Amino acid sequence: MNGLDLSDLTWLVPLPVVLPLFAAGLALALWRNGKAQGVISVVALSLVLLSSVALLVAVDDGPLVLDVGGWAAPVGIDLVADRLSTLMLTVSAAVTLCVLLYSLAQGVEDGDAETPVAIFHPTYLVLTAGVANAFLSGDLFNLYVGFEILLAASYVLITLGGTGERIRAGTIYVVVSLVSSVVFLLAIALTYAATGTVNLAQLAERLPEVDPTVQLVLQVLLLLAFGIKAAIFPLSAWLPDSYPTAPAPVTAVFAGLLTKVGVYAIIRTQTLLFPDGRVDDLLMWAALATMVVGILGAVAQNDIKRLVSFTLVSHIGYMIFGIAMSSEAGLAAAVFYVAHHITVQTALFLVVGLIERRGGSTSLDDLGGLAKIAPVLAVLFFVPAMNLAGIPPLSGFLGKAGLLQAGVAQGTPLAYALVVGAVLTSLLTLYAIVKAWNKAFWQAGPAVPVEARLPRGMIAPTAALVGVGLSLTVLAGPLFSYTERAAATLRDPAQYVNAVLPDGTRGQGKSADVAQDAGAGTDPPEDVSGDVRDDDAREDVRDAPEGGDGG
Amino acid sequence: MIDMSPSVTLVLVVVALVAVGVYLLLERSLSRVLLGVIFLGNGINLLFLVAGGAAGGAPIIGQTEESEMSDPLPQAMVLTAIVITLGMTAFLLAMAYRSWQLNQHDEVQDDLEDRRTARRAAADQAAFEDADADVLSTLAEDAAEVRDETGDAEPAEPAAPAAPAAPASPADQGGRR
User: Fold this and answer.
1) Which end of chain A, C or N, has fewer beta carbons within 10 A?
2) What residue spans define the domains of chain B?
3) Whole-number mean pLDDT of chain A?
4) Who among A148, A303, A541 is closest to B66 (CB)?
5) Fold designation for B1-56+70-109+146-172
6) Residues of chain B neighbouring A532 (CB-CB closer than 8 A)
7) Above 70 in pLDDT, residue A137?
8) Calpha distance B59→A532 (Å, rounded)
9) What is the pLDDT of residues B33-52, one digit of tens each?
10) Nearest CA in chain A to B34
11) Any chain B CB within 8 A of the CB of A279?
């Protein structure tokens, strides 16, 4: 554990968090030099992508756990890389890199007139660090910190430039996000009060001993906090309003990643902390409402950015559906769907950015005939759009098919209702997307400014991302079996707990050796393990203090 | 067995702070929302102290008896949360000021595009009809003019939307919730 042992890939675990943070500091220091900032960002995110891929392969043999700073798990903070988190990490790293290249090209093209270049790169890097921290965190409070890092960065990005419309939409976004953060913090405080720990693995051990009503309160509070972030139906109204106003690359990365971080947190907490699935019915209803209401919203829009935002909300419902089934098949399909949706949704928003550039507008009333003027753009829109709607043999179809199969296998009336809702949503997605396609690309429309050319630097990353989306189809077999293994791990929380706490009570940090002396077992839930100690002080204070009520 | 009995005073303070915070959060003016967030955040921070059990001495080995230490973990978490709240407060203040700079008010507005969609629906227009034809203002102009609640009680305000108005004057008590 101590020292760098290269055969043990644990040293890779913190890189996706640490690298972007360092790069962000460096980029901020070089705020006068836009080019250097760009190079730093690209290098940092490429390294993150490489380490994520390495982790993805490495953790297939079992989760990697890093006790940060050598403090053993329940006391110290641990980063846990398992199949689910590294898959999320890899997809998000690929997506953030593509979007970065896109925004660099856009910046070159616009002469950085629109975005204050000094702020963009550091903030963007901080955002990716926050996302990675949320994915890797093995600790509820660290998860909160990860959320706050990415949210703070997203507040800056969504109000970039401070124009009137962005401030208006950003206000709503910020206030709603703050509310969800407060709810999350409340849930953490109550969790700590009930169990005396915020470590996810230890929580998984202790929560079953907590009173079921208290458990339910904690579960619902966490769901509420993550539900706002993931934009599940009654909590989703903020999204279609705030996302479309940001610059295209920012919207793209938000749409791809931020809601999925919420979905990831739901998967993690529901499977690890509350495996008995007591709110599954509630989640089912929420999933149904999210799908149907979201897509009906999309049908009503005549602005292509808002239309795509509404489909984003709608398709979150599919993932929630998969989670709510609480079965291995459902979870596997949901995880696959998340990976598919991150790439497709981000690609779509990048394409919409290109449409806005080429056609001068995102309103379907002002667009037309783009298929003739810009055939490349038409292809770039058509492929992810059809992928989103779930046309075979694209990955959207495979993800939906997996979900429907799992739903039918479930066999309850509610599951069948969800299956019908999912098919209906898929059809309505097709309807909305085809309408946009007809209006913007197929029909002759208002004259489009001729001088607007699409820079290759922006097309290439978009095409790359569309290609990644297509590769999910080609690689669907291995990927699906990977998500099935991931789901199997998720359904068996003991694996996670054993990885984090090998002897049942302690992680592997330096401080674990200290604890060996006394060997005091944890005594849930009375034990309040708040014994952060100096390494020199070789005493153990794990035994809960008795009657210490002196004020 | 640790003494986990919470201090009633703390609990009452938490209740008061959270209640005030939620009330302010439901206001339209961003300045008030900001105050609400601060109250709410501090209320939750105190809740962490409640969660840590009874208060004790400083948790430093050699200075306090083990049995009399207070739990340091919630304090560490609260410290983090306080720093985060501080940053968010600064950001919200900047946003409220920017909003006032641009629009002479800091109202948290409804989704304006959504209103247009609703208007189209009310007029029985299809979603893809040329709906902007009857709308002469841009969304940015709408944003400056639309004041659902914060501007009601200020009849003295000139008709021109550009007139500066106090974003959250004490007089502006009307038309809430």
Assistant:
1) C
2) 1-56+70-109+146-172, 112-145
3) 83
4) A541
5) Helix Hairpins (1.10.287)
6) 59, 72-73, 76
7) yes
8) 9
9) 999 999 999 999 999 888 87
10) A175
11) no
Considering only the beta carbons, identify the residue of A533, A537, A548 that sits closest to B3. A548
What is the separation, in whole angstroms, between the first and last Cα of chain A?
41
Q: Do A472 and A340 meet the contact criterion of CB atoms below 8 Å apart?
A: yes
- Under an 8 A CB cutoff, do A164 and B113 touch? no
Of residues A407 and A246, the one with the higher pLDDT is: A407
Cα A51 to Cα A281: distance, rounded to the nearest angstrom:
38
What is the model's pLDDT at position A416? 92
- Whether the pLDDT of residue A541 is over 50: the answer is no
Which residues, in sequence order, are bridge partners of residue A303? Answer: A363
Q: Which of B3, B62, B111 sits opposite A549 (nearest CB)?
A: B3
Q: Which residue carries 């980063």 as its tokens?
A: A79
Tell me: the pLDDT tens digits for A208-223? 888 889 999 999 999 9
Q: Phi first, then psi: give them for residue B123, nearest 5 degrees.
A: -85, 5
Whether the bond between A393 and the residue before it is cis, its omega within 30 degrees of 0, is yes
CA-based nearest distance B38→chain A, Å: 10
Per-residue confidence band for B127, with pLDDT thresholds at 50, 70 and 90: low
Dist. CA A76–CA A92, nearest whole Å: 27
The winner for highest mean pLDDT among A52-66, A243-257, A331-345, B106-120 is A331-345
Give the closest of A148, A159, A188 to B84, CB-based. A148
List, as ranges, residues 526-545 from A with C-beta within 8 Å of B. 526-534, 537, 539, 541, 543-545
Q: Which residue of B has its CA nearest to A528?
A: B71
Q: Which of residues 204-243 of A touch B (CB under 8 A)?
A: 237, 240-241
Contact B2/A526, CB-based, under 8 Å?
A: yes
* Residue of chain B whose Cα is closest to the Cα of A307: B127
**Cβ neighbour number for residue B123 with a 10 Å cutoff:** 10
pLDDT at B176: 37
Residue A474: how many CB atoms within 10 A of its CB?
11
What CA–CA distance (Å, rounded) separates A499 from A291?
36
CB contact under 8 A, A168 and B33: no
Q: Domain residues of chain A, as ranges?
A: 9-500
Residues 6+ away with beta carbon under 8 Å from A411: none
Question: Whole-angstrom Cα distance, residue A20 to residue A372?
Answer: 41
Residue A370: is it exposed, middle or buried by C-beta count within 10 angstroms (0-12/13-18/19+)? buried
Beta bridge partners of A65: A80
- Selected for mutation to probe chain A from B66, B100, B132, B147 (highest A CB count within 10 Å) is B66
Amino acid letter, A512: A
ipTM associated with this complex: 0.80
